[in-house]
Design goal:
With 332 residues, the protein is an alpha/beta fold. The protein contains eleven helices and 13 strands. The chain has one domain: Alpha-Beta Barrel (TIM Barrel). The structure holds flavin mononucleotide. Flavin mononucleotide binds next to strand 6, strand 11 and helix 10.
Length: 332
């Protein structure tokens, strides 16, 4: 089915195609309601029971408008966001580019989103039976010295409507955001969020796991130091990786566009980061692997390398829903 739609989708502007897809999934979800996750390889992290290893990566359903629709693809978990305390428009268009020759995307959306209150309203009493994560960030106009306040505001509000939180300190499209992930700074954001978690009163489901999402562009030694710092906290897991600023070996004419690169050109780097993390963390924290998972085999390899869960984004654009089924089947 997707192979029939894809040529038409790939002929139109990528952001228009994106909006069309989200709206179609939204309508599908409204008509049919959510599906339970497909049975796959079950996994438990911080008390959360995932029915299969495959999840939707953050950024595709930033505002949680199509949770039911995405659930129908079979995912075990859906990560929505990145959401910020206040709504913001993101960067000027065009801000997403298809690198077809490379099976990649470059995006510089810049956290365009409706704000955390709108997201909370949409997720309130949501009937989806899988795991929902909310990925949180800071507003563009919040200075880095005050960034922790944005993250705390987001966890305080989103806690009531999700199963886990992801602290995003890894998007390249919010100026200075990645500076927050340096080893000597990361606890300035992570510690206040974890402290806020211990004071939560609006949760009905008890403990709220907190994951931290990192970029792939660290030097190995720097990544190890960040992971060492996270090991000493009460964080519950690491999501590796976000998009890359690297532009090696690309063929597409869009390769010079600024923004984060995802998809097939990220596969090797994401696997490399996963290996480093598995070594450095020594099973103290689970790793969720994302970045360039374009096939069921790619997903299987991530689990073989030690990941607990795998997330998809760009692969879905190139392969469609069949990728989710393949990945669930290959990781069973
Ligand atoms: C268009 C686009 C928007 C994204 N937006 C976000 C975001 O808001 N928050 C986030 O944590 N990651 C975001 N990501 C990163 C993805 O979640 C994922 O980490 C990255 O794309 C690598 O996976 P992939 O190669 O499967 O796409 C975005 C990726 C793309 C392509």
């Amino acid at each position: 089915m997707y192979s029939l739609i894809k040529p038409a989708l790939f002929r139109i502007n990528p952001e228009v195609a994106h909006d069309l897809t989200i709206n179609s999934l939204k309508v599908l979800g409204q008509c049919l309601g959510p599906s339970a996750p497909e049975e796959g390889r079950p996994c438990e992290i911080a008390g959360l029971r995932f029915k299969n290893s495959i999840g939707l990566a953050a950024g595709l359903d930033k505002d949680a408008v199509a949770v039911s629709g995405f659930s129908r693809l079979g995912f075990g978990h859906l990560e929505v966001g990145t959401v910020t305390p206040r709504s913001q428009p993101g960067n000027p268009k065009p801000r997403v580019f298809r690198l077809e020759e490379d099976a990649g995307l470059i995006n510089r959306f810049g956290f365009n989103n409706h704000g955390v209150d709108a997201l909370v309203e949409r997720l309130q009493n949501h009937p989806y039976q899988g795991i929902i994560g909310v990925n949180i960030g800071k507003n563009k106009d919040t200075p880095n010295e005050e960034a922790h306040l944005d993250y705390v505001a987001c966890i305080q509000k989103a806690a009531a409507v999700c199963d886990y939180i992801t602290i995003n300190v890894s998007s390249p499209n919010t100026p200075g955001l990645r500076d927050l992930a340096e080893a000597r700074k990361i606890l300035d954001v992570v510690a206040p969020v974890l402290e806020a978690r211990s004071d939560l009163h609006n949760r009905k489901d008890g403990y709220l796991p907190v994951f931290v999402k990192l970029a792939p562009d660290f030097e190995d030694q720097d990544l190890i130091q960040v992971l060492e710092a996270l090991k000493r906290t009460q964080a519950d897991g690491v999501i590796l990786t976000n998009t890359t600023l690297n532009r090696e070996r690309l063929r597409s004419n869009f390769r010079e566009q600024s923004g984060g690169l995802s998809g097939a050109p990220l596969t090797t780097k994401a696997e490399h980061c996963l290996r480093i993390a598995i070594d450095a963390l020594e099973a103290t924290l689970p790793v969720i692997s994302v970045g360039g998972v374009m096939s069921g085999d790619d997903a299987k390899r991530r689990l073989e390398l030690g990941a607990q869960l795998v997330q998809l984004y760009t692969g879905l654009i190139y392969r469609g829903p069949v990728l989710v089924r393949d990945a669930i089947r290959m990781t069973r």
